[in-house]
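Researcher: Quick sanity check before group meeting.
Model: Go ahead. Protein one:
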Amino acid sequence: MDVPEPLTEEELAGIEELLAATTPGPWYVRSLDDDHAMCLVAVSTVPDTGLGERWPDFDHHEIVAATLVQQPRYVDVVDERWDENAAFIASARQDVPRLVAEVRRLNRLLAAGRVAGSE
């Protein structure tokens, strides 16, 4: 397995720019339903109520992404990992900033070790 090159500060800044351009978080997975988007698995800016609301009982402005729309079947994936994909997308909104901060923290520690070791 190839070891990837370390992320540069420019790459980390690029990731942060992409993140800053997204809808503010946190994001949540929601299971919704209606006649036009049957069994909608969505990523939303508000938590799931567990009620499987039907439109117009949910605000479409809260939906960031969808991983499954069964009727008509125009949002789907062959491996049927709709819930898993939605959970990943939703958690990425919170996890990516933490990962960028952790990479920077570790880079500072490595740099400090190099400076201390060179004396």
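Researcher: Fine. The other one?
Model: Protein two, sequence then structure:
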Amino acid sequence: MGAWVCARGGLVSSFHGSWGTSMVGDDYHALMQSVPRHVTVGKPSRSWPCCKNVNEGKGVFAPLVVVTRNIVGRRRFNQLRGKAIALHSQVITEFCKSIGADGKQRQGLIRLAKKNGERLGFLA
């Protein structure tokens, strides 16, 4: 289902149905009677974000990273990882300054470093 604006300024839509309910009269009442009384419809339960890393166990350095995280603890490990990433970004920035690369090229190098880190298992 989508809508597009045509060249003449009108709105074109692929929706050809009705905004009303299709359950009217006897159909609705029959459906309501078929649902057991103990079934209640309420606010959906909140799903918590998954804490498992998609890079877990992938890459050459992943086992070392996982063992280190288990030894020093997740909180301390994330602090150290953040400092290492910040330091690496500074090195990339200094390198870009020395060769005269602009900000867009610098961002590209930082993205490339992140992809390489994921492939090697540093972000496990």
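Researcher: One line on it for the slide.
Model: The chain has a mean pLDDT of 76.
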